[in-house]
Design a protein that fits this description.
Blueprint: H1 2-19, H2 22-27, H3 33-54, H4 61-87, H5 90-97, H6 100-112, H7 118-136, H8 146-169, H9 175-198, H10 206-230
């Protein structure tokens, strides 16, 4: 049990490092927002599929069914993620995302029987104060806007919901299976956004592919590690 817990903590810590690269990558993207999300998910699904095949496992319809809620939330989260980062600073988005533990503290006990230490509550207060200062200091006409900060807040709430859904799904679905299944569901989820807001899914230019692959491989690895940690 202790070995499994140690593996889970190591995976969670590594995941934070990988996912922290996301805002910097998105800031360099010049293509349409939803199109970027679509192709990022498509490349990630390919990578996860290769990983699953290499492990000798197969994806079942039951895996997809159990992963549907997580995939829907993840797809919506990515849409708001790129919307927010196009309308506020990466620093503000990261600070606002740090509110996630505050939200999760409210559900950790009732849903999962967890008892967080008092230290976590103290740091949550610090995170909340940082968010208030970041949003108050936003210049409506600058890089960091209040509209972008509000989008980042919605993004954080969606990711918190995705986190909870993933924790529950991982009780019955293996991490690699879950990651591929939820990514496929998320891929389908963003298509209506692309059709309504951008008139379809544009093909990336040659320069965009490197950023798409980087986003799928690096933050994508972080999401896989997070979902691995959920099971430990």
């Amino acid at each position: 049990m202790q070995v499994q817990a140690a593996r889970g903590r190591a995976a969670a810590i590594s995941a934070v490092g990988f996912m922290a690269l996301g805002p910097s990558i998105v800031k360099k993207v010049s293509m349409d927002e939803i199109a970027f999300v679509f192709w990022r998910l498509a490349v990630a699904a390919l990578l996860y599929g290769i990983l699953l095949l290499a492990s000798g496992k197969r994806l079942s319809l039951d895996d997809i069914r159990r992963s549907t809620l997580g995939g829907l939330l993840f797809g919506a989260n990515l849409v708001f993620f790129i919307f927010a980062l196009r309308r506020t600073s990466a620093a503000n988005a990261v600070v606002i995302a740090s509110l996630q533990p505050v939200v999760l503290l409210a559900v950790a006990g009732p849903m999962f029987g967890e008892r967080p230490s008092r230290t976590i509550y103290a740091w949550s207060v610090v995170a909340f104060g940082g968010v208030v200062l970041a949003m108050y200091g936003s210049d409506a006409s600058g890089v960091a806007t209040r509209q972008g900060d509000l989008l980042a807040l919605v993004m954080m709430l969606l990711f918190s919901a995705y986190y909870v859904a993933s924790k529950r799904a991982r009780a019955t679905v293996a991490s690699a299976n879950y990651q591929l299944a939820l990514t496929l569901v998320a891929l389908v989820t963003v298509v209506p956004f692309a059709l309504v807001m951008e008139g379809g899914v544009a093909l990336p230019e040659s320069d965009d592919w490197l950023l798409i692959i980087a986003m799928a491989a690096l933050p994508g690895a972080g999401h896989l590690l997070t979902n691995y940690a959920h099971g430990h």
